[in-house]
Amino acid sequence: MSNLKYRLLIVGLLVAASIVALWPRTTIERVERDGVFAYDTVKRFPVKRGLDLRGGMHLALEVDQSQGTVADPADAIARAERVVRSRIDEFGVAEPLVQRIGETRLIVELPGIDDPERAIEVVQQSAFLQFQITDRTQALERVAPRLDAIARDLNLAVGGTADGDTARSSPIGLEGLLQADSSADSTSSDSSATQSQGASTGPFQRSLQVGQLPGQYFVSADDEPLIRTLLAREEIRNALPPGKQVKWGADSLLLGAGEYYRPLYVLDSRPIITGEYLVDARPNQDGLQGTVVEFQLNNEGGRRFRTETGRHVGDYMAIVLDDRVMSAPVIQSAIGTRGQITLGGSTLQEAQDLALVLRAGSLPVPLSVVDMREIGPSLGQDAVQQGIRAGILGVILVILIMITYYRFSGFLAVIGLGLFALFTMAMLAGLDAVLTLPGIAGFVLSIGMAVDANFLIFERIREELDAGRTVRAAVDSGFQNALSAIIDSNVTTALTAAVLYQFGTGPVRGFAVTLIAGLAASMVTAIFVVRTFYLVWLSRQQNPQTLSI
Amino acid sequence: MIRIFNNTNFDFLGKWRIASTALVAFIVPALLWIIIGGFNYSVEFTGGTLMQIEFVEDQDVGRVRNALGSAGIESAELQRFGSDRELVIRASGAADVARQVEGAETVVASIRQALDQEFGEDAYTVIRTEAVGPRVGGELRQRAIIALLISFGVTLIYLAWRFEWRFGVAALVSTIADILATAALMRYINLEVSLFVVGGLLTVLGYSLNDKIVVFDRVRENLKKFQKEALSALLNRSVNETLPRTVMTGTTTLATLLALLVFGGEVIRPFAIVLTFGIVVGTFSSMFIAPSVLLKIEQRWPHAIGARRVTTEGTAPATQS
Fold first, then answer.
1. Of the candidates B109, B97, B91, B86, which has an alpha carbon nearest to the alpha carbon of residue B50?
2. Owning domain of residue B114
3. Could you confirm whether domain A126-355 is CATH 3.40.50.1110?
4. N or C terminus of chain B: which is more exposed, having fewer CB within 10 Å?
């Protein structure tokens, strides 16, 4: 009987280990504490619900190579992962997940968010900050005729430059547009020259209107698409003056007679400083400037900034974020470690997000979203309820079938089924598995399949009894003879589940894991636990003549 | 004690011609259909965008369609979902998928914009969004096919190791027939093929093999026990002996699937349909197809399963070799 004692001990240990595995655990997670998100210790049930059960957003990102190839995407995505993680940590969701999948893909999971567009913006924004001095040599005016000649050769100087446009913009004149501006400078006289000349010569000379400050030009909303296309051409880019760059302003301006103009800036290519020296950024609201983001540089950055701005007093400094000029203030005197970016009419939320991404640092490469899924919280709740209801009904049906058909033995199997559920959940907890909707389906299904091993054994015992064996012998050989079929059939199912795990993603993996855990648990319960129950029952009978099976 | 199908003596192998004809008749038209028209793939596989929208009030589908049309969403399919307030928008036409090259979220953004303009931001909520870029879609399709093939390969190797290669081939051939029949059903009822459904198909694969193994395990045992019996009679005996278990396991599994079908909700339903059908077919083919295939293989390449005389089906004289 010591054999039986060991068996009972093992069953007891299995149950105890399962309960321990399922006991609420203390883990460190990003959670909300008094409205602030921070890493903290929390106690929670070890099996987490997947995004499809609690709602949220799933994003898969890859290095965007459409603007130019990236030499080492695997390395780039690894660096991007760090940046994205620090941004997401500050984004304000509990238990976010940022994970690299394979060589080139990044997964971001944000449970329970309600503004997916904002989240995508925060993840995707490059946040590459540069400070560049605007050109004061009228470089663009000088090359404009040549650019027009190239545009003519490319046959691109058509469309959007119909006579109507020129006719409308000419009489207004730039002086007229900028009357209100007190800082009108010496270049304004050149502008009319450029303008009158441009009307007949080509798109650049025709549409570029000199702006208020050196290196700034205005392009009307009608001409903007054409100029954008032209500036994207390599031939045009190569013809720009050496050491200069052309960048668009972030916002269009309403000038003169209700027409929108977008500023275009000619800048020194070499930035005097970039955002890598930035240590802090905070949103603020300024009565005069509207929404701003104030930033602070570290000591080294501050030193450089001071030297460079000292050298450029009186010049205009463009603050360039992701290749768009946010603003271009004049440098009054050397600037130290502090500065600000004006955002014009943006909301405070947008300023907050910009400050957040600036603090987290710029993305080393542009990322593009290749897969996006979002599940509303109500859908997840419904799914959980439906899953639970289906599970309960499934269990009731299986219990009814087992007990009606196998009586006492069926009852033993049902107790085994309870332990099966416990073991399966414990295994999922041990594997840190995430419970998904397919996972629940897999679990419900595995309840139906878990009893298969019991059927194999019970039918075998019945055959042995039919063959005239004693109850004891029939139980023994029933378990023994059914073993090979149980193992072979479970192993093949587990093999297909393993393949499913290897090739599936997200929820389907959840299904595969649940199925494998279920198979393992069902083998343990059917072969070992239920047999132990039998042995306990047999040990209490002197010489059983009948078995309720 | 309740017993079903106890000590039966059905001639399963004798029915192989009817059974396999029925199976082939079911599979072939669908197979042609699949070759010509493919499956009704979900956006996961085709790439594209799916949005489930709930309006605050009942909305006319035509109005939503117009709003989307003027926003340049060309191939949007609209479908009511449950109530009149819920709607599924699916944009998976070539033009819309191509737009998602620059970012999977682009079409989602324009759908939202179009709805905001037409109905206002507060008139609806987005319940579910799936936006899959074309590359991910193609990748998943490829992975699903590879997964199926690898499953076949791995199980064949396992069976060849545990049994004899003929058993492995017979089990696999009949399991492939089950998978094809299930795929045929998916085609006939125009079931949307999602990753979850493919998962269901792989589960059918596992379950169906499982069923055949139980029968073949009995065959393996009986081969030792009844060395003089003709193979066709022995196969019939094995199927009959395992019949109660086959029926009981099928019943309980179907019972849990029934629960999933009734209460599992819209997302689980396609999966439950695939499994229900797959398990019925798998059970059927374990009784009628798999043993017959094994017999055919043995007739073609004799003397591998013990040295016994193989008889043609129907006539079962137990002459010994």
1. B91
2. 48-132
3. no
4. C
Residues B33, B172, single domain; the answer is: yes
Looking at domain A2-24+376-540, its CATH architecture is: Up-down Bundle (1.20)
User: pLDDT for B158-211, tens place per residue?
Assistant: 888 888 888 888 998 999 999 999 999 999 999 999 888 888 888 888 889 888
User: What is the 3-class SS of chain B, one letter each residue?
Assistant: CCCCCCCCCCCCHHHHHHHHHHHHHHHHHHHHHHHHHCCEECHHHHCEEEEEEEECCCCCHHHHHHHHHHCCCCCEEEEEECEEEEEEEEECCHHHHHHHHHCCCHHHHHHHHHHHHHHCHHHEEEEEEEEECHHHHHHHHHHHHHHHHHHHHHHHHHHHHHCCHHHHHHHHHHHHHHHHHHHHHHHHCCCEECHHHHHHHHHHHHHHHHHHHHHHHHHHHHHHHCCCCCHHHHHHHHHHHHHHHHHHHHHHHHHHHHHHHHHCCCCCHHHHHHHHHHHHHHHHHHHHHHHHHHHHHHHHCCCCCCCCCCCCCCCCCCCCC
What is the domain count for chain B?
2
ipTM of the complex: 0.83
The secondary structure of residue A525, as a DSSP letter, is: I
Prediction pTM value = 0.76
Q: Looking at A340-349, A399-408, A444-453, B311-320, which range is the least confident one?
A: B311-320
CB-CB under 8 Å, B2 with A405: yes
DSSP three-state, residue A248: strand
Residues 191-230 of chain A with CB under 8 A from chain B are: none
Interface contact flag, B155 A495, Cβ < 8 Å:
yes
> Is the domain A25-124+367-375 a CATH 3.30.70.3400 member?
yes
Task: Choose the closest CB to B259 out of A444, A481, A515.
Answer: A444
Which of A144, A106, A143, A99 is CA-nearest to residue A124? A106
| Domain presence at residue B310 | no
